[in-house]
Amino acid sequence: MSRYIATRAIRGANALVSEAEAMLEQALGERGPETPVAFPNTAYYLPVIFGMMGKEIGQLGELPGILAHARSLLHPTPSEEHWTPYLGETLDSGMATLIAAEVIEAIRYVYGLQPESMPGFKLAGGTAFTSPDSDGGDGGPDGHLNGAIDDIQLRSWGIQLVDGRMPGFAAIVGCARSNEAAVQIVRQLQQRNILCFLSGNVNGRSIIDQLAEEGVELGYDTYTVPFGRDTISAIYALGFATRSALTFGGLKGGQAREILTYNKDRVFAFVLALGEVDDLKYSAAAGAINFGFPVIADTVIPQILPTGVTTYEHVVSMPWNEIEGADDSEKAKRLVQKCIEVRGVKIRMADVPVPVPYGSAFEGEVVRKADMRAEFGGRGSRCFEHLKMAKLDDVTDGKIEVVGPDLSTVEDQGSMDMGIVVEVAGRKMEQDFEPVLERQIHYFVNGASGIQHIGQRDITWIRISKKAADVGFSLEDFGKILHARFHSDFGAIVDKVQVTIFTDPALVEGRLAEARRAYDFRNRRLADLTDDAVDEFYSCTLCQSFAPNHVCIVSPERLGLCGAYNWLDCKASFSINPTGPNQPIRLGRKLDAVSGYWEGTKDYARIGSHGVVEEVAMYSIMQNPMTACGCFECIVMVIPEANGVMVVSREDTSMTPAGMTFSTLAGMAGGGIQTPGVMGVGKYYLISPKFISADGGFKRVVWMSSVLKEAMARELEVVAERAGDAELIERIADERSVTSVDELLPWLEAHAHPALAMDPIF
Amino acid sequence: MPVEIPKDSWPGAVNTVTLGATGDQGGSRTSTVTIGGERSLPFMHFESPMPHRPAIAMEIAPARPADWSAVLLEAWGATADDPGSWARACEEAGADLILLQFGLKGSGDEPVSADFAVAAVKAVLGSTGLPLVVVGPGQAEVDNSILVPIADATKGERLVLGLCEEGNYRTLVAAAMANDHLVLGKTPMDVNLAKQLNILMSDMGLGRDRVVMDPTTAALGYGIEYGYSVMERLRLAALQGDGMTQFPILVTPGAEAWKAKESKVGEGTPAEWGEWRQRGMNWEALTAVSLVEAGAHVVVLRHPESLRRVRAAIDELMASETA
């Protein structure tokens, strides 16, 4: 925490508490202790005081005790010479400021000074207010600002804040650089459905004055509420936040800690300080930080960047004249974008804005040559896609650029080079998620009617149908699809998405080389990702709907048996959906490195299988093998006579040496039952160094469906090399040569299979 | 020879939930319904007595439903024209509570509106003292547009608001929390999905005593065994101590059974299917009793005769407690 900020916040708090004490003393003298105090139309008394202290204030006479508490929270300013920790002191002072501010506003309500009068001003909907001293006394919306928000509006907005329709609120305090800047800032926030609370001034001029002069309607109806033209009225924003927690969080008055945490975790609010920040603003900001609301200023102030009380940075300075942008409107856009980043507000994308119908129903569509407008990739051109992580500041969300010739330059049924480069940034994004997200491009692009997407990486092949081109589908639309879908499906890890589509052949060349370096890097990363290199595996209970007691334990070297979920997928899935089917399993102490037992996997096996399975060995088929649902790509089964195992592919319908076909075997392997000697696995587990490594590894494979040998020829070559026997794959029988155990043994002998000479598998 | 019956002792229990609030409790109901609290599988009285009986809710609609079997409409007669009189008829027929099911239509051909929905709910609350479950048409946006105003207009009644699904649970849970109501979560026949929704709703701070779950069931002959199995597994997990499966269960055998061809079709059926009316009631009662045995805490029915039959079956199952 900045000592400068601490000093000024603590000083501001001391001053405000003293001011409140003086006002209260005078009010008690003039009006008497029995005078009722209340904010209009609320059941939450003075809400911050009620929430933080649990006191149900109804009369002036109850306020001295409140201010005494505020005073007890004050501290001396940090010493110039001896630095002691002052975060706690500053936060306490912030809280004292909020309490004092609420007391001051309550007294002003007694005197009819709230809501603040502003002759000629008309509210576009606001708190119904009745006071004999206020303008006209009719409670009408004219001639005054809003003051505190009433409970009816709290419910209506609060529910939208809770369910996410409204991403958050901005407490804007001060005065913008210009009227145009003020209008643009509010417009930018409104466009994102972010509620704006306005208060404060700089040298007597408030953003409320600026907006009023520009004819911007202010009030409930336009989601911009003018609280008042001094900083103290910003307290209503925190009263609103406190009441949100009380109403929608099921909390009670006095549960201060719970209320503050609720706001930090669920109410995506922030303070936007416009113009010079004085002591009072610093101390009010310190109060807001208690709620987990960060402060962003458009002037030069010391920053507090480490995370702690708020989710991300506490105080961020973004001086207006240093913001890039040709005009105030562009600057406002960047400032608001920064606020959203600092608070971690998630933007929701409802629709995919493309001219063709969009939905998963179109995923399987085929665009035939005759119906095609143009293609990218395939035989006539190059096409690739590359998703990379970038820094938050280096990505402009929603920016889509086509670099090179457009679709119109391609002859009918012609082809063109294209490279789709997606840059994503996010607080929770990790480089490991790049391939997981990149693979989604296939599904996202295919969702557009009239677009066909095949392949991935540098073997991508995309076709646009005539029909789609006729209704106006352009290359830019690929970017719009990806921007919308990454936000809607991966919003938990992705905050910003920018898409560049390269069609200029020379640029495609260069970007393709860069993409290939990335693919290569990822391949190597995957090779390095071993079970020993991580301290968490993941569970997968996706299939428990039909195999209730089966649970997959997915490790870097053993992917899910369906082949669809590897360790990285599970990790990303957990980030996106923390209560979903993929949960981390902390490994804890390693109990048996050979068979693959950890404390964590042992405990989880029992919980995940609801007590049906006691233990699971990650690397053995003989003792406590992992169970299976029914989705396995292959079945591995021990052939005792051959001292090894056979591997049958799901695609192989022929007879196996076990005397059973795949479908009969599937009955034994599936259903979440542990059967030593039988196991359902994903085919890429076959090539893992940890493939039944406790039982002798890949050299145990004596028979394997030919379809696997062919489809995985390259990978199997590597396995053979690793085993030190280049001929290993040729020594393995398949259904073309052997369909019974009687045929198997002579065949293995004739081919000198290593399993025959290995230790007994039993 | 005396046979000793082995007894299971479970570490967990189903949550106890009270539906409806009386005048003293901040509502206007004359009776409330408390469900749950079991520490054993259903009706295993010798292991642990069941603290509460399974309850029977009768389903009504805000206007005479166009898609209900003629057999049902005949049974309810003119009372079905108006939700208030229909609810009163249900109370007289012996229902424990009422379930008001909204469709996409309001009065006539108009789409259902907040005003229409609030008026219907008020009519029901005004004409019966039974606790009430209110269920929207099942489209997240429409559900939100009517259930939030209903929640606001009936603060303190401890209504059960449904359906909370993955798409709209936040809105409904918030509305329920702000107005002292309960919610009904619905998931498509899957233990883990049910559990996940329960986690999400609980994460919002909703108390354990304010959630009822509908894990979805099917009618006899149309997949009831799947529904049965999911309910059974949820109960087993609950008893084993998994907190996120311990919510009491509400299922809708009435709606499911009357969708089945056997109860819907009156003409051109084989003679051995027997008389249509009896067949429909048999279908509903059999479906419902099976689900009660699977561990349902509330079964929602449509025909008054089914109510009588299911009630008799529950009486018998509960009577074995003392036998």
How would you describe the overall organization of this protein?
- The complex is a heterodimer of chains A (762) and B (323).
- Helix content of chain A is 35%, strand content 15%.
- Chain A has 762 residues and is α/β, with parallel strands linked by helices.
- Chain A folds into four domains: 3-110, Helicase, Ruva Protein, domain 3 (Orthogonal Bundle), CATH 1.10.8.190; 117-343, Rossmann fold (3-Layer(aba) Sandwich), CATH 3.40.50.2030; 360-513, Bifunctional carbon monoxide dehydrogenase/acetyl-coa synthase(codh/acs), Chain M, domain 3, CATH 3.30.1650; 532-757, Bifunctional carbon monoxide dehydrogenase/acetyl-coa synthase(codh/acs), Chain M, domain 5, CATH 3.40.1470.
- In chain A, β14 and β15 form a beta hairpin.
- Chain A is elongated and about 110 Å long.
- In chain B, the strands form two sheets. Chain B has an eight-stranded parallel beta sheet. In chain B, strands 1-2 form a two-stranded antiparallel sheet.
- In chain B, α3 (114-127) packs across α4, α7 (224-239) runs parallel beside α10 (276-294) and α10 runs parallel beside α11 (304-319).
- The model of chain B has no long low-confidence stretch (mean pLDDT 93).
- Chain B is globular.
- Chain B is of the alpha/beta class and 323 residues long.
- The longest helix of chain B is centred in the C-terminal third of the chain and has 19 residues, at 276-294.
- Classes of the chains: A alpha/beta (762), B alpha/beta (323).
- Chain A binds chain B through residues 155, 158-159, 162-165, 247-251, 262, 541, 544-545, 548, 579-581, 610-611, and chain B through 144, 148, 152, 168, 170-171, 173-175, 177-178, 189-193, 196, 199-200, 203-207, 229, 233, 236-237, 240.
